[in-house]
Amino acid sequence: MHPLDFGALFRLSPNPYMVLDRQLRYVTANDAYLRVTASRLEDIQGRYVFDLFPHDPDDPNNENLQMLRGSLERVLASRTPDVLALIPYRVPMHTETGIVVMERFWSATHMPVLDERGEVAYILQHTVDVTELQQLKQAASMAEAGQREATGTTALLEAGVLGRAQKLQETNRLLDSERRHLLRLFEQAPSFMCFLRGRDHVFELANPAYCRLVGRQDVVGKSVREALPEVVEQGFIGLLDRVYSSGEPFLGRGMLVSLQRHAEGPREEAYVDFVYQPILGANGTVTGIFVQGHDITEQRRVEAALKESEARFRNMADHAPVMLWVTDATGACTYLSKGWYDFTGQSEGAGLGNNWRTVVHPDDVRAATDTQTRATHNHTPYRNEFRLRRQDGEYRWTLNSATPRVGPSGEFLGHIGCVLDITESKQVEEEMRRFNQQLEQRVQERTAALVEANKELESFSYSVSHDLRAPLRHIMGFAQLLESRSLEHLDATARRHVKTIAEAARQGGKLVDDLLEFSRMGRAELKKAPVSLRELVAEVRRDLAPEAEGRKVQWRVGDLPEVQADPALLRLVLKNLLSNALKYSRTREEAIIEVWATERADELEVAVRDNGVGFEMQYVDKLFGVFQRLHRPEQFEGTGIGLANVRRIVVRHGGRTWAEGEVEQGATFHFTLPRVGVTRPLSA
């Protein structure tokens, strides 16, 4: 007996057959298939089935193509046969006029051909052309229109068969739609999932989350041992074997797994929550295991960091020099540091909730509670003071400071705060208050005494100056009489003595006048009014014209504004400064005197500069003192009162005075007036 030639049987079978690989490419087809599709084997081998037979080339996603593709994909996914009871599909066919693309009706069966691992290697398609049966169905429809006798009983029966076939096909379509929906959910699930088939735990499905977890994309079709060899020694294969054998699920919580995610890299650790759920077949036996879980590595890291942070906080809080506390969103105390219990003597935990109030002074409890309640309700920081009972029974003043705690989403979690013993500070504060009161009283007393002394001094100065004027007038009068009547009888020495007496008396009179003027400066009431500095400088220059007569003097006057001041006193200030500038620059061939003003945010500065003899800066503090002179009278006349008057007047206006100079390089004198009432500058 000769062995059967299955290849010949396949080739010569009167029914159309063809074979596709997993990529839906033609592997082979028998003669019957080639005849009904008007094809040649060499033209279709290796070609994608839908490139050759798209049904409708103008619509790549047409419904008929989708039906055929869905059936083939179901075979790949389920590894079980799939039937299309009826599908209209266009194929090229031999006709009397040549090859023509025609729409025919087909019934197709798709059979999986499995490899040694149980995976689909090929798909065998068996098709039957049922176009004539479809035509019988149309005939049945015609019978309903009054032509039932012409079609015959057979047509009606065939029409019933076709109706049941179409109903089965619609059921298959709905099931395929549900399968696709479930597959999308499976692939898009945030948790990792896979399905392991058989005792060898072969990956049949694995969603992207699972592939990311293990760092592999090519696990489907491989056993766990083959795809993830690193987990064998970690006991996971044993767990899978136990679930498969017992049929009991296994739930893992926070289990550590070490994975070789990169071929050349080190193993990486991950923490996972997962379940191994056995899947039962139709006969009740386990056929595979469904794996589902969550990667909680980041959660574990956060928890570890949080525990470390809490440990650091507690260590810091327990060793801090203050008492620390924490409340929740309701205001209840959830934590008190060791410092609190050491200070109050409460046992650990005894102050939690609202029990911390039991060691607050009875007179302070209500205020402390109200302050905390308001801050908890408004989610605001707060500070308050209250007395706290120390473990020895003494009530100590404490300062309580709190700030809100906020969660990652901005939600209010409560307060965190600290309590500091401020009893010593309170005592020092009270002592300082009493000291300040005593000091203020002493200052008032001494100020009053100083004011009285100044009044007496001014009165004395005025009296002395006034009383000196009469003797000085007599001396000057008699000296003038002696000079006019007896000068020709006197020798040169006597005449010089008479002249000296007269000059000394005149200088003494000038000094007395200046003293009286200085005394009046302290008593005179300020009569402020708008004053044009430009006009005031012009008036003083006219008054000083005799002193500048016969000299070459260059005046440089800048923009000077209008100010609010006592006109007479301000005129005296300018007269003293400009007169000094003229006097101390008279040794120069050409005197240069400058006057300008500078406006600032809170004051106006006026400056007078000359190119005269100047002075040494080490003596600058003497310039504005009474009777203070830096030059001998025979060099430059004066009484030493003028600049003292300048300072007194400026100070009474609320301003400042200072000077700068250099020997033989001139001097600059400055004074300021407050900006109150200052207007825009006027042109010189």
Structure write-up:
- The chain is 44% helix and 27% strand.
- Helix 6 runs antiparallel to helix 7 (153-188), helix 15 (492-523) packs parallel to helix 19 (642-652) and helix 16 packs across helix 18.
- It is elongated and about 180 Å long.
- It has 684 residues and is α+β, with helices and mostly antiparallel strands.
- The longest helix has 64 residues, at 423-486.
- The strands form 5 sheets. Strands 2-1-5-4-3 form a 5-stranded antiparallel sheet, sandwiched between helices.
- It contains 19 helices and 23 strands.
How would you concisely characterize the structure shown here?
The protein is α+β, with helices and mostly antiparallel strands and 684 residues long. It is 44% helix and 27% strand.
Question: Which features does this protein show?
Answer:
elongated; 684 residues; disordered C terminus
Q: How much beta, percentage-wise?
A: 25-35%
C-alpha Rg, in Å?
A: 58 Å
For the terminal residues, how far apart are their CA atoms?
Answer: 140 Å
Mean pLDDT: 82
Overall 3D geometry? elongated
Structural class: alpha+beta
Provide the helix percentage: 40-55%
Total of DSSP H or I helical runs spanning 4+ residues: 19
Contiguous runs where pLDDT drops below 50 for at least 5 residues? 146-153, 678-684
Order of strands, widest sheet: 2-1-5-4-3
* Record field, number of beta strands: 23
Strand count, sense and barrel status of the largest sheet are: 5 strands, antiparallel
